[in-house]
Amino acid sequence: MNRNENEQNKEYEIINLGYEYPGMTGGVKWAIITDLSQEELDLKFSEELSIFKPYVIMTCEQGEALHEYRRNENKHEMRRIRHHDIWGYTEGATEYCNSIFSKEEPEDTVIEMLNREALISAIDRLPEKQRRRCKLYFLMGLSEEEIASLEGISQQNVSLSINRALVRLRKIIKK
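^ thats the sequence. predicted structure below, dont judge the formating
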């Protein structure tokens, strides 16, 4: 039913609303995620839950939506961190400053572009699964865990597939 069943074999889960909603004000600090009614909850667990009063009751579907929201927010935050420009971006000014302070020579930029094109060309020669996973990982910036979640497989399978693809890519590029 919910994550606590795996951990404690209970029919409910307790979440701290202050953690889920930073800056939240009000008297209710806890939510109980359960499919039990208030009466059933009181009958079975009134003493156990008394320390969390007052609390709100959420259905398991609402709790799962809350967990999915948190996972999604964490995923987007990690993506933002991975692709964050420490100096920020200002239209026109960023390009100008980067061109002045860049240590790269134009030749380096051209070589980097050619290397990227060669990599993309080599990735396109991989088998379909490896090609898709490499594009998601190397070009789109998704983590192995995110790819596994998208494809409904384990992270280990994605990791193994990407490692095998790297072996193939080395052979393709050496030719």
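Residues 138 and 162 are 10 Å apart (CA to CA).
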